[in-house]
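step: validate -> pass
step: tokenize input -> pass
step: predict -> running
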Amino acid sequence: MTVTNVLSLGLAEQTEIDAYTAFATAAPPAVRDTLGVGSLRLGPARALAIREDPSRFFNRAGGFDGNEPITADLIARVCRFFAEQSVPTGSIMIAPDLLPSDWPAIAAQLNLEEGPTFVKLAYDLDAAVVDVALDSGLRVGRLEPHQAREWATVMMETFELATPNEMIDLAEGFVGAPDWQQFAVWESERIVAVGSLYVHGETAGTFGGATRPDARGRGAQSALLATRLRAARDAGCRWVVADTGAETSGQHNPSLHNMLRLGFTRRYERTSWVWSEHR
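step: predict -> pass
step: emit ->
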């Protein structure tokens, strides 16, 4: 595999949206039909919707790389996709340096509003991965197939995404899927933290890192991050990308600080642009 010394904006964005799409479409057809999973490719970009997910978290579009012009017509196609999938809202993710100069006019024309802001981070795997100490009684490792249901339940319940029950089926469906690796932290035989790695050519993305509330502050998240960095290097990747919520005044995001302490670097903050059926 040929790897590059520079992580492009497009590659970072495409790794993220491809991971979400691969996650949702790996489930059995009956689960996808029940939940109303739909996806659309738009040149380098992709859009995803899950009609029966009440959180609306997975309704998103991203992967814009700047090589194809970001026009009002292109963004209107994304909005039509969300409407056709019968979802009430959908988020459009574009790296700030890729927004066209007429973006304010496009956003106004399509009634898009500013939503949450996320931090995009990256880790250069040429750097050494630090060792992370877990509290006594915890161990980290690769997930076994027979543990998929418990693992998926921990992931979706921790993120408060376990309703309806088919959302857990969705998460269970991507365990062991192509390009995916899953890891966990155990206390005795109980899974207390989970995380995945999506391998996307020379770049990998962290996905779904979650720790049960009663196990937080014991090194589980950092241990899972370090384990996934090593797994990405073993898979031949050069970069690992991640995203998490940006901090506003008075807020503290432990996930962000865990990644920074481990050696991830901030690349940019990206605002979500939200389409709504009611606007």
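step: describe -> Helices lie at 9-25, 29-35, 72-84, 103-109, 148-158, 166-173, 220-234, 254-262.
step: cleanup -> pass
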